[in-house]
Write a structure and sequence with these properties.
The chain has 131 residues and is an all-alpha fold. The protein has a domain of 69 residues. 42% of the residues lie in helices and 0% in strands. Helix 1 packs across helix 5. The longest helix has 20 residues.
Length: 131
């Protein structure tokens, strides 16, 4: 017995039709892409004697600190930023969790940029599960 694509769709409710989540994962400029997505650029690593232990994304605590609660009188643009931050956190902490345990991955920044693109998130979840 194995989990199928239809099982993923039924269990998670994620779409299995649409564009595949493939392509190049670009690490260059990820801080600026986070800022474009959610409106706040993560602070750079500034420790003088130690190498950055998290060059691949922002801490979950950074997302919680900056996007814990959307203001009641927020404009639609601010609500959209909070929604993207929530989805980034959800994708990297729950759906595509990895061994870092405390860092969001920048690999989902580009798919979250455009709400109108229909991505096959269920296919990506199944591939990630098998990986």
């Amino acid at each position: 017995m194995t989990i199928t694509l239809e099982d993923i769709a039924m269990i998670t409710g994620l779409p299995i039709e649409g564009r595949a989540l493939t392509g190049q994962v670009r690490s260059v400029g990820w801080r600026q892409r986070v800022a474009a997505l959610v409106g706040v650029e993560p602070e750079p690593w500034t420790h003088e004697t130690r190498k950055n232990p998290r060059p691949s994304g922002v801490l979950f605590s950074w997302i919680h600190r900056n996007f814990r609660k959307c203001p009641k009188d927020a404009s639609p643009a601010v609500v959209e930023r909070f929604a993207r931050a929530y989805l980034l956190n959800l994708l990297t902490q729950v759906v595509f969790s990895d061994g870092t345990g405390d860092t969001t991955s920048w690999m989902f920044l580009d798919p979250l940029r455009d709400w109108d693109v229909k991505w096959s998130w269920g296919s990506a979840v199944l591939a990630f599960l098998y990986r």
